[in-house]
Amino acid sequence: MSYTPTPSTQRSLLRHLGLKALAITTVGAAIALLDATGASAATTALPHTATPIVTPTIPQVTVNFAGEPYFDHTQYIIGVKEGFFSNVGITLAPNGTGIIAPNDQDDPIFASGRVQVMSASAQLFMPAVNTLPKFKLFAVADLFQGYAILGRPHHGLKSYAQFRAQGLSPRAAIVATMSQMKGQRFGYPAEAAIKGFIDLAFSDAGMTLAQVHSVVAPDPETTALMESGRIDFQVGGVPSHLTLQEAGFVPILTSGDLASAAQPSPTSTALQAVFNDGWVAPDSWLKGHMDTALRMLSVDWRINQFIHDHPQAASAIQTPFLNSVAGTKFTNDLAPRVVYRDLDPFLTFAQQKAIFQDPRNPFEVQYLIGSAIQLYVHNGTYKPGEYTWRDFTDADQLYAAMVQYQRQTQVDLAKAAVRMRSLSGAEARTVSSLISRAKQLYADLDFFDAARFAGAAAA
Amino acid sequence: MLATSRPHRQRRALTYHIASLVALLAFWWLLSYYTNSAHIIHGASALPSPLSVLNAIAGLSVFLAPGTPTTLAHGLAALWQNTLVSAERLLGGVLLGAAIGITAGLLLAWSKLVRLLVQGPVLLVRTIPLMALVPLFLAWWGGTSFGILAFIAFAVFSVVVISTVEAAGNVPPELVNLARTLGAARFRIYRTVILPAIVPAVIGGLRVVIGIGWALLLAGEYLGAQNGLGHVLIMAEDYLYTARMALIVVMIMVYTFVLDRLFTLAADWITRWMPKD
After folding, report:
1. Distances (CA, A) of B141 to A66, A99, B48, B101, B222
2. Domain annotation covers residue A124
3. Hey, which residues does B197 pair with through a beta bridge?
4. Is residue A132 part of a domain?
């Protein structure tokens, strides 16, 4: 698939990178990031001589940041504590950790203009698109699939995943999973978003709610009813999901299961049950701070990689922080067991290729946002054709740009290695230091700065 | 009928107060026991018992710092810490709002021109539903401490300015006329007659504000507060910790009572020159 960046994003990327020419590439190359010399921002002015060698710098910047008091929006604390942000010159403000606000306060806080980057989802802001400052999701953190039908433990229930593992087709697995609920007591709240998930699950299984004994009640009540054995299945919001799963109840069908069986299409209703969390910024800020956005993107990937590689250590940082801001009582073992695995799987740099560059993947960002747009068209919030997925995200373009920087770094490091053979003395030491720094930044997934240092070493 | 002595009457009143409180607690306990045994068996019960509300204090420990052990001492420390933050915001907002409100009220009462120009909008301000302003203040101030302070100050201002204007308007005209016939100039009349005369009414207005102050504070702390009792309440609501929510409600009741008593004592001292009925 060919990614063509929007003109405004191209301009802002190029302006900040100081590039002279643009070459649109085809597969996998979204943005022409390099000029004819192959040099990057700090080095484009350099002549092609051995001297002088200009060492690029990474500026110190402060980003006004806001998170939410949930697992899928506090992982950034890992980046703060592990020094991932400071490594690329970023300090979160205020207080080094930003502010925390529940999701019902996100819109007004974002609208106030006092936050430059917010941990949120494009879908969260989409209903208010006409009143909020123009915004873009520029970094994807995780795939939220928090809605789940939970069943009682030790009752011989099988999950959708288990049916799939037995070889059933996605459709047959949904039917088999949902059939276990026939004639059983099922508790759920009247909340529209959750009701949408329930309707979808029943419709995909060819069932109706008349085939179960419905108990419509708020989450605390259905949670308690599950624990007391007075109902057999339950769906609720994330807090009740976490509470019940921590108590041993088992998810048999999640919104992620439904979505994984969906058609890869922006018109797929099953995709409305899932969405990407990540970092959202006003479009104006992104255009003026593209370099910072790229560095933040690298931090996003480092955090996700850390969670992937060291889930226990990640939880030991994130869970106490979440508890301290939300007053929750989560134990450190919960996140690796439930959150990182099922509820909000965080996506590494490598894993994100599938959501940006694989049109066969139903979770591709354009399908997830496209399906949400369809929902808002359907309920009358948007006029048909008023918005496209491109209006709400540039994350794919930034990803593609970073992939380009990654490749360029590899090329320039090879050139620098050749150059090193002809250098000696102070010059050799400087180039060697640039190469080391570039390699370190590359390892830290900051391909943007890695390319700058490698470019300086190779120039 | 035998006349009872004053101390005896006071003791009897106190006994009734305590008895009614104990009865209320017992009723609360029984009701929560019934609801828990009927429906709810885990911590997030719809109506937490008085004991679970007390136990919720220790749960506040986590607000002190990441990884703080859950103990009663830590919980009390966290409660105290958040109370101080909230009290600071409340007092700041009340003082700011009262200062602006009283000054504006006095200006309105002083000048007919100012009154003609400003009184209409001021009366309109009074009709603004404060809770409806919460999301707007959030959008304007984005969860800053100043936004919280401004919200409380605005709410206090809207009450105090009216009570001040009305108090000035209610000063008996014979007092003003008497001062005038004795040769007092306008400013002197204002300073020595009107100002002292409106003090009780202004204090009455402030007492109303103090009464609703903690409620205003909670609304204010919905403006993205990062700490304080309102913050604790909002987070508890998000995670359905009903015992913690009830604890904050009880604490607000206690603080409102204490603040009202302190304010009454201070008001009595300020108006000690006034004849008592």
Report:
1. 14, 13, 35, 21, 12
2. yes
3. none
4. yes
Which of A31, A110, A27, A30 has the alpha carbon at shortest distance from A67? A110
pLDDT in tens, A39-84: 344 333 333 444 577 889 999 999 999 999 999 999 999 999 999 9
Tokens found for residue A82: 């592990």
Name every chain A residue with its beta carbon within 8 A of the beta carbon of B142. Answer: 108-109, 112-115
Number of domains in chain A: 2
CB within 8 Å: A220 and B45: yes
What pLDDT, on a 0 to 100 scale, did the predictor assign at position A166?
94
| Helices B242-270, B195-220: crossing angle, 10 deg rounding | 170
pLDDT tens profile B8-29: 888 888 898 899 989 999 998 8
> Chain A closest CA to B190's CA: distance in Å?
43
Q: Which two tokens stand for residue A20?
A: 């002279």
pLDDT for B32-59, tens place per residue? 887 766 554 444 466 888 998 999 999 9
Length in residues, chain B: 277
Same domain, A123 and A173: no
Residue B229 has pLDDT above 90, yes or no: yes
Q: Collect all residues with Cβ–Cβ distance below 8 Å to A256 and sequence separation of at least 6.
A: A143, A145, A274, A342
- Picking from B41, B65, B239, the nearest residue to A224 by CB comes out as B41
A331 touches chain B (CB under 8 A): no
ipTM of predicted assembly, 2 dp: 0.73
Estimate to the nearest angstrom the gap between the alpha carbon of A118 and the chain centroid: 12
Residues A109 and A68 in one domain: yes
pLDDT of the residue at A4? 42
For tokens 């915001």, what's the residue? Answer: B89
| Chain A residues near residue B82 by CB distance under 8 angstroms | none
| Owning domain of residue A273 | 61-142+269-394
Give the model's pLDDT for residue B10. Answer: 83
Contact A227 B244 (CB under 8 A): no
Q: Which residues contact B98 (CB under 8 A, 6 or more apart)?
A: B156, B157, B160, B206, B209
A-interface mutation test, from B62, B144, B223, most A Cβ less than 10 A away? B62
